[in-house]
Task: structure prediction
Amino acid sequence: MKSMTGYGKATVTRDNRQLTVELKSVNHRFLDVSTKIPRAFIAYEDVIRAKLADGLSRGHVDVFLNYTTVGDTDKRLSVDFALAESYVLAARELSAKFPELHHDFNINALMRANEVLSLVQSEDDPELLREMLSEGMDKAVQSLNEMREREGNALRRDLLSKLDNVESLLARVKEYAPAVAQQYRDKLRARVTEALGDVRLDEAKLMNEVCFYSDKCCIDEELTRLYGHLAQARELLSSEQPVGKKLDFLSQEFNRETNTICSKSSDLDVTKVALEIKNEIEKIREQVQNLE
Result:
C-alpha cells in the first residue's frame, strides 16, 4: 500500500556527463505529470511519462532534471575567419584614412572583436541521453515508491485503528437499539393513560402503534451493512494494490448508512454515538485521500 505523497532522487553518470532526476508527488485523482527539464531532453518526455505510468497509478508528480558535464568538456572555440578578415581590412582602411591616429590593432584585439570567436558545444548522442534518462527514471521512481510505501504503511495502521474505533461505537449502537422500542412503548403508555384517565387502555392498539414505530426506527439493516463495510475496508487495507479510490467510495457508504441511523433514531444515546461514528468516518475520508 502506498501513499501518494513522496520524494525520489537518482543520479546517473556516463563518461563526463551527469544526469540528476528528482520526483515529487502529491495527491491527485489521476496520474498527472508536470516536467521541468533541459531543452536536450524535451524530445524524450515520452520516456518520463512511460516510466511514471509503469511505477505509479495516480498522483500529481513534478519531474526535475539537471544535466551537467563534469571533467573534460566537449566545448570548443570556433573562429569566423571571414568576419576576422573583415575586421582586419576595416582596421587598415581606418588607419589609412586617419594616419595621425595611433594604430594598436593586433591579434588580441581581433580575438576580442564581437563574434569572431564563439563557444560551440558538441551535440550529445541521442541514444546516450535516452539511456541515461531511462535509467535515472527507473531509479528515481523506485526511490519515490519506497518513500510512498513507508507513508502508506503508516496510513494503513492509522486507518485500521480508526476502523476499530468505528466498530466499538457500532457495538454501543447495537446495544442501545433494542431498548428504543421498549422506551417508546413505556412513554406512549404513560401519555395515553394520563390522557384517558380511568378509561381502559386498548392494549391491541397500543401494540400496533409500538410495532409501527419499531419498524420505522429499526436500524438492523444499516448496522448489518456497516459491519459489512468494516470487513470490506479491512480486506482492502490488507492488499498491496492501489485501493485509494475504492476506500474513498466505501467511506461515502459508511457516511450514508450512519446518516440513515441518525434520521431514523429518536433516541438521544443512539444519535450521540452515531454522531461520534460520523466524526471517525470523516477522519477516515481525509486519510483515504492520501492513498494511491
Observations:
- The two ends are 8 Å apart (CA to CA).
